[in-house]
Amino acid sequence: MLVREANRLFKPLGISAVQFNVLNLLKDAPAGLRPTQLTRALVVDASSTTYVLDRMEALGWIGRAEDKADRRANVIRLTPAGQRMHATVAPLYLAALGEMLRRLDPAPLPLLAQALDAIRGAAQSAVDRTQADPPAARKSGRRRADAGPRL
What is the CA radius of gyration of the chain? Predict the structure, then answer.
């Protein structure tokens, strides 16, 4: 929902929410970031990062350079055009964010935080359970030797 609204905000400027996030991350990293670092920060898969970076490079917003610490790797840096795009978009984003926060009633926010924490905990438990006792093993009656007792 928030990504959809961010894309709607950015569309007239010709930039997506993911592209803005990349610009934002790189703005705070003048030495650049490796694509793997961007992938982790964006919480996407590597192929999605590659696609976004290729598009941003074609637009002239980022550049790739050899990582001096590891010549096998690249670092991604903002170009002057990327810095200008960030300088154009960031104030619009901050204004929209401020407007959104002004419209929120603070009273239910602690309950929302509690609910989100419960959802996070349930998701972690579900993944842990599934990894400990995969569904295929449960159906066949087989269990991983290191799975421990059933819960």
Answer: 21
